[in-house]
Amino acid sequence: MTSGLHILVKGRVQGVGFRPFVVRLAQKLGLGGEVRNTPEGVEIFLSGNSKARSTFLKELRLKAPLPARLRELTVRPAPSYRASAFEVKRSREGAPKTYLPPDLATCPKCLAEIQDPRDRRYLYPFTNCTDCGPRYTVVRGLPYDRSKTSLAVFPMCEDCLEEYLTPSTRRFHAEPNACPRCGPRFWLTDAKGQLLSPPDPWEFVICSLKEGAIWAIKGLGGFHLVCDAENDSVVRKLRERKRRPTKPFAVMTQNLKTARKFAEITPEEERLLVSQEAPILLLRKREPFPLAESLAPGIHLVGVMLPYTPLHHILLSRWPVLALVMTSGNLSEEPLCYQNQEALERLAALADYFLLHDREIVAPA
C-alpha cells in the first residue's frame, strides 16, 4: 500500500546532520516527502509503500548521526499526502522547544582535507561539515539555519553552495560551511593590535612560541593563552601575568603517541581523548615528567587535550616538541574573552601576540 506519514522527532536533532541523514535514507528507500526544522525539532512527511516506510522508521531510530539524541518520535497517518521526490523544506519559525549540540571536534575527513596540499581547503582553519565544527557558539536562534548563525555574513561561493545543496555530499545543509574563497579569515597582531604580515603566518607563530612568546589565540568558543609547555620560565611568566600562582594549566598535544611521552593513558582514557567530544582529561604524569613542573605544581596529574579544531590541528602539526599550554584567555576570576576588541583591551598585558579571526563567537564556551 502507498500512503503518507507525518513524523515529528524531538530531542537533539538540529545541528547534527539529521536532515541530510533523513534525505539520504528516504532516497535510498525510494520514498518521497520532505523534512524541515521546526521549533519542536524535525518534522518529516513521508510518502511510499508500507514496507519502505517501516524500514525508514526502524533506521531512523537506529542509524541517526552519532551526536543526535532522539527523545521522542511521534508518527501519525497522513493519508492524503503524496510526493515523488524527497526535499529539505524551509524551516518553520516559532518559539524554540529544542536544543543544539555543543561544538563538535574536527572529523577525520575534514582533517584529511586541511592536510592535503591539493585540496581547496588546505590549511584552512575554518573547515567543517555536517559531522563536525561549530554549533552552539555560532547560533543566534533556532530553528538551526545558516541565516541564524554568525556565518550568515559570509555568502557561500559557487563551490560551497553546490556542496550545500547536493544530498550526496557531507556538506549538504552544513550551515557553517565555508572555504578560503568565501569564509572567515584570520590575521596576526602584536600586543598593541598592530597588524603583522609575515610570509608564513604559521611559521611565525611557531618560531615565536619556541622563543618564549605568549599568544592569545581566538578559537571556537573564546580565547586561549598559549605558550611552550616545556619552558618552565615562560610558564611561570604566564602565571605572573594571569595572576594564577598555583592552579594547574591544561596542555594540548598533537596525538596519543605524543601524549604518552608525558602521561600514562589507559584504554578508556584513549577512547575519550579521541572522541568527538574531545574533552580535557586529568591524566597521571609520567615519571620523570618532561614538561614544565610549574604546569601542575605539587600534584601527580596533568590536564591533557588533543586538537579539536582545524586551527589547533594546523598549529600542533607544526609544533616540534611535546605540548603547548592552552589555558583560558582571561585574568584569574574574570570572564573568558571571546570578542576581538575585548581581547585586545583585556589581554594586552598578558599576551605578546594575538591570532584573531572574523567568525563571530555568539555564545562563549
By DSSP, the count of extended strands is 15
Query: Largest sheet, order of strands side by side?
Result: 7-6-15-8-9-14-10-13-12-11
Helix content: 10-25%
Q: What is the H/E string?
A: EHEEHEEHHEEHEEHEHEHEEHEHE
Distance between the termini: 50 Å
* Overall pLDDT level: 95
Task: Find the structural class using helix and strand composition.
Answer: alpha+beta
Largest sheet data: 10 strands, mixed
Unreliable runs: none
Judging from the principal axes of the Cα atoms, what is the shape?
elongated
Question: How many helix segments?
Answer: 10
What's the quick description here?
This protein has ten helices and 15 strands. With 365 residues, it is an alpha+beta fold. A hairpin with a 4-residue loop joins strand 6 and strand 7.
How does this model look, in words?
It is a single chain. By secondary structure, the chain is of the alpha+beta class. It has ten helices and 15 strands. The chain has helices at 18-28, 50-62, 108-114, 158-165, 201-210, 232-242, 256-259, 267-273, 310-318, 340-346; strands at 2-12, 32-37, 42-49, 69-77, 86-88, 186-190, 195-196, 215-218, 223-228, 250-252, 263-264, 281-285, 301-305, 324-328, 353-357. The protein has a ten-stranded mixed beta sheet with strand order 7-6-15-8-9-14-10-13-12-11, with helices on both faces. The chain has a five-stranded mixed beta sheet with strand order 4-1-3-2-5. The radius of gyration is 23 Å and the shape is elongated.
